[in-house]
User: Fold these one by one.
Assistant:
Number 1:
Amino acid sequence: QVQLVQSGGGLAQAGGSLRLSCAAATSIAVFDLMGWYRQAPGKKRDMVALVKSGERTEYTDSVKGRFTISRDIAKNTIYLEMNSLKPEDTAVYYCVARRNYGLESLDHWGQGTQVTVSS
């Protein structure tokens, strides 16, 4: 199991900004993708943003233009810059690192970070 340690998050007002970090205990270059999911109370965990090999990024529609995912391979860390925050962004955010093994894949998860946006 690869250890992923999250930091950042917390409380912000609507329209504000927060940044999440996810540091891996190994080189992140080995992962086929890394990214962020979020889970609001009573809801399932949904994809927020992904960064794949070749720096290809993917975002869920509701955060496009507001959130930016990036990675620093030298620091083995990925980031999620969240701007123009909305109350509906409130959730626990999880970092994920995925490695593919043929037709199967293995996901490693961070511990989760609470993000609360007040109106």
Note: The first strand starts at residue 4 and ends at 8.
Number 2:
Amino acid sequence: QVQLLESGGGLVQPGGSLRLSCAASGSSSTINTMGWYRQNPGKERELVATITRNGVTYYADSVKGRFTISRDNTWRTLYLQMNSLKPEDTANYYCNAGTLYGGTYWGKGTLVTVSS
């Protein structure tokens, strides 16, 4: 079992920056991949960025060049640095972890609002 807790969301003006964090606990040593997803009411959850155990990253086209995903070496904390934020980045952001044994875990989310 892996527990995930996001933090760092809030209200920011367009063009501003936020840094999201995701604290992992439990069997974090079994984590193979972590990622950030986002979702707005009535819409499907969409992938924002992922990072593998080997450090390989993937970004959605909509955030490429503006967002950076990173993690600490113990897999206990995942980050998402978000720069040049746009109103369309407004969403609930969720942390996800996939384990070596095929398990998938989600946090409860943190709200990011980009508005003037």
Note: The chain has a mean pLDDT of 95.
Number 3:
Amino acid sequence: QVQLVESGGDLVQSGGSLRLSCAASGFTFSSYDMSWHRQGPGKERELVARITNSRSTMYADAVKGRFTISRDNAKNTVYLEMNSLKPEDTAVYYCHARRVLPLRNIDYWGQGTQVTVSS
């Protein structure tokens, strides 16, 4: 059974930091690209950061220089270190796993963890 379990969401003041974790099970974690997405109040879900199975990373412009994505394949866990948080970072943060195959992709999603940044 595939599971992605996010943790680390919290209420934090503007300028603060949080570290999100996503523990994966039920699939070959090291073969998957992992990413964090978020959905703020009244907004569409958006990509925040991605780390490929070869550890290449990319970030949304809104979080560059403030957020860092990393992965620990031995622990089947992906992390999102968030610094200098702003009220506009308030959202539910979702973990996503994708394996790119020639004819299709395989996608898994977590249930999300709430991050609230107060001004």
Note: The mean pLDDT is 97.
Number 4:
Amino acid sequence: QVQLVESGGGLVQPGGSLRLSCAASGSIFRINDMGWYRQAPGKQRELVAVITGGGGTNYADSLKGRFTISRDNAKNTVYLQMNSLKPEDTAVYYCNADVRSWSERRVYWGQGTQVTVSS
């Protein structure tokens, strides 16, 4: 089994910054893509950003320039640096990871971390 644990969410004022972390642990042979998604109240979950095992990145068009995804393969951790935050960024942020374990390949999800942007 593999567990993803997110941290770093919280309350921030508009224009502020937050850095989310998501650490994977368990029976991991290799992690392929890792990503961040978010879900605002009453809305569907949407892609924020994805990073490949080789470091290639892809972002939601509306977030380019404000959010940066990165990863530390030695720590099995993915990060999301969020700058110039807006109230519309308020959501639960989830990480996921495409994990190859010793017996299977599966996509795992974290439990989510709340980000609230408000004055």
Note: The longest strand covers residues 30-39.
